[in-house]
Amino acid sequence: MAYVHACSFCGWRRESATVVMLSPHCEQCGCTLDAVAPGDVRRPAGEDAAPALPSLKTPLVRLLTLVFAVVLLVAAARLGFARAGLNGGLVAVGVAGFLLLPFAPERI
Ligand SMILES: [Zn+2]
User: Fold this and answer.
1) 14 has which bridge partners?
2) Fewer CB atoms inside 10 A, N or C side of the chain?
3) How many of the other CB atoms lie within 10 Å of CB of 54?
4) CA distances for 61 relative to 4, 44, 51, 68, 101, angstroms
5) CA of 67 to the centre of ligand 1 (A)
6) Residue 2 near residue 14 (C-beta atoms within 8 A)
7) Cα of 62 from ligand 1 centre, angstroms
8) Three-state secondary-structure class, residue 3
9) Residues 37-78: pLDDT tens digits?
10) Please, is 3 exposed, middle or buried when counting C-beta atoms within 10 Å of its C-beta (0-12, 13-18, 19+)?
11) Which residues on neighbouring strands pair with residue 35, listed in sequence order?
């Protein structure tokens, strides 16, 4: 019986003879794949319809995100340096960098 290893997030799929996956991650988005029968493949939501929200990967949004990150790091360094000297500035930059981690792209 043939199976399909499908990504329910982006719709990527590949044919397979077994349910066993040696590489269980989607090649496009990295999500975990589902092993299903070919008739049970679910299409990702919104595949037919136009996207409800505009893409956030525009150059303007990336530029604004970069400017925000730089301003946050500079402000943290200045505040930390003013309050506790060089060590405070380094700690504040580290904390600000840690808080910016969720905004870093998964694949740089
Ligand atoms: Zn995917």
Assistant:
1) 5
2) C
3) 8
4) 36, 25, 18, 10, 17
5) 30
6) no
7) 22
8) strand
9) 888 877 665 555 555 666 667 888 889 989 999 999 999 999
10) buried
11) 5
φ, ψ at 80 (rounded to 5°): -65, -40
Query: Which amino acid, 10?
Result: C
DSSP 8-state symbol, 9 = T
Please tell me the distance between residue 36's alpha carbon and the centre of ligand 1 in angstroms. Answer: 15
Distance 91 CA to ligand 1 centre (A): 37
Compute the distance between CA of residue 60 and CA of residue 103 in angstroms, rounded to an integer. 15
pLDDT tens digit sequence for 73-82 = 999 999 999 9
d(CA 73, CA 20): 46
Query: How many angstroms separate the alpha carbon of residue 26 from the centre of ligand 1?
Result: 5
Q: HSE-up of 25 (CA within 13 Å, CB side)?
A: 5
